[in-house]
Amino acid sequence: MASSQNAQRLFVVPDETESEAAQGSDRPARTGPPVCSFCSGTTWESVPDKGVRPCRCRNEERRLQLVKAASLPRLYDGCTLSNYKPVTGNASQLRAFNHAYRLVESYPGDGRGLLLMGSCGVGKTHLAVAVLRELLGKGIKCLFYDFGALLKAIQATYNPNTQTSELEILSPVFDAEALVLDELGASKPTEWVLDTMLQIIRARYNDRRLTIFTSNYLDDRSGRESETLEDRIGVRLRSRMYQMCQTVLVDGEDYRKRFDMRQI
To answer: What is d(CA 100, CA 115) in angstroms, rounded to the nearest whole number?
Structure first.
């Protein structure tokens, strides 16, 4: 059993220079990226009596490329579905987790995403990132963007000295198979902001691409915010989002307050 398990692992094949260096040889140790033990770096794996096939290390390389391109925030490096812990008795957090879990299990499903609405610190971004992390594991092209940061990146392209075009910023947003737009509605709803939001949401809505939004704004004024999400993004966008996303309200206390409660 142990040998079977070891056979599935990718590991570095030491060469003579490494062995000699470890024994105190004057010859320098080989430096460079790890070499796959199945293909010796050729990306083609030999199959006895059958020839060759694409090596399994290609999948790992593609996974790493997808993770890098997804731009997941380092703050949420440890966020997964398995470590999202709804507060005991909090039905809304459990419901949000169930929606996220089913979204991953049924992907691509009908292409309908999620709109996670709620106050700060209730785990909305944790769940959104966790979904992307699971989809990345399936080889799905994903992208994370804080909405305010996305708007600033687009605005930066208007500088005549920049080398980046607006299309270069927006193309990955349009093309990602799964996209998270965090903090929807946080930016002041100017005409330009509304037009940009409409362009993004309409493109993904028409192409039936999975989109997950998080927002601190609700659909009514019973929360702490004096404005609704519709106030922040407009009637047309909110209308489209009803069809492209399942609205999920997440309640609870701000977990970040616990950091101030810790004793040194």
So the answer is: 11
pLDDT (tens digit per residue) in 16-48: 434 444 445 455 554 555 776 677 767 667 777
For residue 240, which amino acid is it? R
Q: Quick check: 39 and 55 in contact, CB under 8 A?
A: yes
The answer for residues whose C-beta is within 8 angstroms of residue 169's C-beta and 6 or more apart is: 150, 153, 154, 157
What would the mean pLDDT of 86-108 be, rounded to a whole number?
95
Output phi, psi for 224, to 5 deg: -80, -20
Residue the block writes with tokens 């989002």: 241
Residues counted in the chain: 264
The domain segmentation of the chain, as residue ranges, is 2-55, 70-260
CA distance 248 to 93: 9
- Cβ atoms within 10 Å of 137's Cβ, excluding its own: 13
The end-to-end CA distance of the chain, in Å, is: 47
Phi first, then psi, for residue 147 (nearest 5°) are -65, -40
The CATH fold assigned to 70-260 is Rossmann fold (3.40.50)
Mean pLDDT (whole number) for 219-232: 81
CB 35 within 8 A of CB 82: no
3-class DSSP state of 42: coil
Separation between Cα atoms, residue 164 and residue 159, nearest integer Å: 9
> Exposure of 193 by Cβ count < 10 A (0-12 exposed, 13-18 middle, 19+ buried)?
buried
